[in-house]
Amino acid sequence: VTAVKTKPKTTAGNFFDSFHLGQEIRHATPRTVTTGDVAIYNALYGARFALQTSDEFARGCGLARSPMDDICAFHIIFGKTVPDVSINAMANLGYADCRFLKPLYPGDTINTVTKVIGLKQNSNGKTGIVYVRSTGYNQRKETVLDYVRWVMVYKKDPASPAPDPVVPDLPSVVSADSLVVPEGLDFSKYDTVLGGSEFLWEDYETGEKIDHVDGRTIAESEHMMATRISENNARIHFDDYGQKPTRYGQRLVFGGHVISTARALSYNGLANACFVAAINGGRHVNPSFGGDTVYCWSEILDKAEIKGRRDVGALRVRTVATKDRACADFPGKTADGEYDSSVTLDLDYWVFMPRRV
Amino acid sequence: VTAVKTKPKTTAGNFFDSFHLGQEIRHATPRTVTTGDVAIYNALYGARFALQTSDEFARGCGLARSPMDDICAFHIIFGKTVPDVSINAMANLGYADCRFLKPLYPGDTINTVTKVIGLKQNSNGKTGIVYVRSTGYNQRKETVLDYVRWVMVYKKDPASPAPDPVVPDLPSVVSADSLVVPEGLDFSKYDTVLGGSEFLWEDYETGEKIDHVDGRTIAESEHMMATRISENNARIHFDDYGQKPTRYGQRLVFGGHVISTARALSYNGLANACFVAAINGGRHVNPSFGGDTVYCWSEILDKAEIKGRRDVGALRVRTVATKDRACADFPGKTADGEYDSSVTLDLDYWVFMPRRV
Amino acid sequence: VTAVKTKPKTTAGNFFDSFHLGQEIRHATPRTVTTGDVAIYNALYGARFALQTSDEFARGCGLARSPMDDICAFHIIFGKTVPDVSINAMANLGYADCRFLKPLYPGDTINTVTKVIGLKQNSNGKTGIVYVRSTGYNQRKETVLDYVRWVMVYKKDPASPAPDPVVPDLPSVVSADSLVVPEGLDFSKYDTVLGGSEFLWEDYETGEKIDHVDGRTIAESEHMMATRISENNARIHFDDYGQKPTRYGQRLVFGGHVISTARALSYNGLANACFVAAINGGRHVNPSFGGDTVYCWSEILDKAEIKGRRDVGALRVRTVATKDRACADFPGKTADGEYDSSVTLDLDYWVFMPRRV
Fold this sequence. Notes:
The structure is a homotrimer. By secondary structure, chain A is α+β, with helices and mostly antiparallel strands. Helix content of chain A is 19%, strand content 29%. Chain A has helices spanning 35-45, 50-53, 55-60, 70-79, 82-86, 192-195, 220-229, 240-243, 255-265, 267-270, and strands spanning 24-26, 31-32, 89-100, 109-121, 127-137, 143-154, 209-211, 216-217, 275-284, 293-305, 312-323, 343-354. Chain A starts with 23 loop residues before the first strand and ends with a strand.
């Protein structure tokens, strides 16, 4: 066999020194979401939020049909960015300013575009932090959601010059004023019995903590299927053999799988939190592995009225997930400011909930 | 952090002393079923009954399209009752008088309502038996199916007074006269080649036993996905960590997963048993766990003509499932009246099958 | 219990001595494919070929919507033949002359018909080789695909006479002239950014080798779900208990699962290889088991223009999959003509790829 000289066809993805400020990346693999995707998402998480599971219930709330679960939409839009943004990341550092602007419906086609909004080389000269704003569009070019994340990425050539450091100014919390209630939504006839809880926006108080009680054990194939729904191709989640020599010795669970599991578990205590309106920030505190059991608890961080609306309000919620540890005593940060070793996720977000009318 | 005093938001579910005779419970989480749910059900069980897998075949039998698998419909309607009826159950004691009245089609939305029809406290004063009739409706308020089950549930307060004992009078077998043939169904041009077997209603005899030959090993994620399709949230099936201190030391497989697996395996021997018409009774004799291999066999208990129909008849079938034991010798109850230790399920039901015309 | 004498209802399937030359078998279980099946296929393989994941992208290429993945269509058509052709096979020996003639779309209903085109008893008198041509049709009786395979099957009665040996003359490669471009397909405005690679037909050279880099670990439930999507009921894939006494001691992964995994991994390097046009041949070199990690590499064996088309060309690709071994050095046959022990699959096929216009 004679060696053929052509350009290598395999994409290695971008490294820190591949990015430049202001760069815009149109991501590959547009995706039409279907009731099939919804069904798999339900089979993986067993979410019971009535608005997302019943077209009739959604119509009773003024929508044309059940929208897709917001977190699922987030994962799909996120997943497209992985091959270009984080395939060479050594750490996913944070999220900010994520707003859900338009529900995603079965039949919609999603595209994602990312803009590089910050770059800062680390002092070791081998890695740097890339800040990106990614936007998911539907087939009508309407923005479905928009968010910022920052990742630590390896440099391809450690000798390449450091860019001028630019760190974007990011809000620690999405302003309640900027939350967007889905078009047409009307909670004035919301059915709390079918919704699964008598508790509405008025019944929650800032500072209140809720143990979501139930636990869910993560099966290997479930987290891999979940990761593939969003076409997230990060090797670390799929290649158990390749992970053997690493410090974990096995494949890691996609962080989004823990978010989705926690969101589904939070139904017991937040059953009427129909929509995720924004993600203020989030941290994957510890990795999860197949066989771990996820528990979680939530704290109400804030409440906000929605301008011009008597039927819907917003709750700012912090949900903390653990592994192999029940959450009756709300494990989080300990006195020394460190997280309890069981904590895997600390997520800060806004939800919409019907008000008492 | 100051403790906030509000009503606890988490539902603990009902205990024996929460129920009262005649009580009606509208269950949460209405559910629109889709071709996505059908696809997952097929991927989990590999059912090959032609009427449920081909829209064209269903149209050839007078239906508008393929209906959902009856047992899947049963699980979805059943699942809604779990948070209110059996989340605090220590045992699922039995089923009776279950009739399938209307096929469920993709696009239909299901609601379930339950009525408490019996209550009997146990002599230990700590538990009691609750008898309920649950009814699944579609979006046109048509009854899809109706069944009775009874469960042993813990009391919340052992000191609470015992209710007057009421035990409903339940039929040991659904009368063949009350079976409802799906509207429009016409088996006069049934294609036995595509159906997968030359054998029709006339070919089966009361007392005949059939070994379904094949075995299916249960994977952990499969039984959990199956359980979530029906939004059944019983902890015992999902929380492996929480189950460690129990006598089983691990999560248990949802009994419905064994029913569905056995129904799918029964195709080899009962390929033209297109519809489940009724469930007369059933018992989960032993629990199943991930890794168990399911085998099963069936016995024809009875045959019935359907009034006014020459194209369809009913067979009363008993299907017995085992774990890790082939069924060539039809293991069931032994001479001393006890079940063979391999038996996990003993189900008594009616099916519809085409007649020779 | 008195024994009832009726014909046995369980199908044992065909043995070598059940087949005769020219025999035509209409297979059971017609199947309507849906967006649910597509969603599960995507969740199992994470394929990122834009044409199959976005209806909008497909419309931009002249099609009505996204067609189903070709390999998925192949598995579904193949799966129907298993109960009649290979349930008693001791080995799946080969494939040839497989052409994809019409894309399969969600909503289509598939039937498969098989013709016996060759028979040759082995000298041991206990087994024989059956050659069959299987054809998948949609509900309009249009041929979706057509292929030949040959399997070694046990005889039921070793004393039965050997048939006259007939071995069909099969092409080692499907002629490029006979490849059929999907009706309506127009690649003149193909978007390489959304497609995921800048490389088009012109950029690949015969002899070029591509390491697809990524690895995917096979989970037990994933390969079983994949096998059931196609209603393939071969026991060897499902019955772990029954496999314990065999030389493998456990269930084997359906060979098609490895093909689909390799096809999905090949996206990284062949992102614009939108359609599989033909399968020239293939061999499952070694069995795979749950827990194995699949890697693969490809070689461009040939290139062909398509008569009358400037927008699309064909590449003949050989994809070799391994288990637990990365493919940077392209493991295949060693100097002595034997396969490296890590190799599980050696597949030779044609793909269509857009040309530079």
